[in-house]
Specification:
The chain is an alpha+beta fold. It contains 9 helices and 7 strands; from the N terminus they run βαααββββαββααααα. The protein is elongated.
Length: about 260
């Protein structure tokens, strides 16, 4: 273990998603508010005025082209929309749903820079005033680590609430390092098993790359070019591009 603390901060991609979702929901909510409070009521009032004028003018079809512009009505009668109470209410509902979501994600985006995970050779810390010495750790729940990269550290230290490691929300390599450090201190058997599983996965990946390269070489120059490990690791593919290929080549989550 190192005396220098290792810190994981919010991943750039995750933070960008927070900001994008917040912005889209907030703008959609503002749009719905405008439609519900301004646009739709005005269109409903205009529709009623048009209907009243038509009822008073038997020759309204002939008079429409000349009369409509004087009232600010559209030249095409089909553009006069009938906005019902249900139409207006639906805008209120959409605004009531999307605006709070947009605000919540926006605030999460603005405060995400304060969130962190950190470990040294004795203590794990997290934003929100949570910290636990390795002796305070009561259990480590890794049921979601292999599939989702989430591990929950239960403890009796400061803050009481579990410290959650999530390698999608936090920068991946430091998060993995934090897990391995804590796991080695709390459960050496689980740590050894995870390291062995990681090594087996790496060896399997290396063997697969070597087999692919050998097969490509056997097929001649064109095949050898396709089997070049560097090309395999960097050339985009339809399933996920260069990043997905590189991630697969790198092995399992914990490094």
């Amino acid at each position: 273990m190192s005396d220098q603390p290792v810190r994981a901060t919010i991943a750039t991609g995750y933070k960008a998603r927070l900001g994008l979702i917040g912005l889209v929901c907030f703008l959609f909510g503002c749009w719905a508010m405008y439609d519900g409070f301004v646009k739709y009521p005005a269109e409903a009032e205009r529709f009623d005025a048009v209907q009243a004028w038509k009822a008073e003018n038997p020759n309204w079809q002939q008079d429409w082209p000349a009369y409509a512009p004087t009232q600010g009505w559209p030249a095409n009668l089909n553009d006069v929309d009938d906005r019902t109470f249900t139409d207006i209410l639906s805008q209120y509902i959409m605004a009531a749903i999307t605006l709070p979501i947009g605000v919540w994600f926006g605030l999460s985006f603005l405060t995400s820079g304060r969130k962190f995970l950190e470990v040294d050779d004795q203590t794990i810390r997290a934003s929100g005033g949570r910290s636990a010495g390795f002796g305070d750790i009561t259990s480590i729940d890794m049921t979601k680590w292999k599939t989702k990269g989430i591990a929950k550290i239960n403890h009796s230290g400061q803050g009481k609430s579990p410290i959650v490691l999530d390698d999608w929300k936090f920068t991946r390599k430091p998060t993995e390092h934090i897990l391995m450090t804590v796991l080695q201190a709390h459960d050496t058997e689980a740590h050894a098993a995870l390291v062995a599983e990681q090594e087996a996965a790496r060896q399997a990946a290396e063997e697969a790359r070597a087999a692919a390269a050998a097969e490509a070489e056997a097929q001649g120059p064109a095949g050898a070019e396709l089997g070049d490990p560097e090309r395999v690791a960097t050339e985009p593919d339809p399933a996920g591009g260069a990043e997905a290929e590189t991630s697969e080549a790198a092995g399992p989550r914990v490094s």
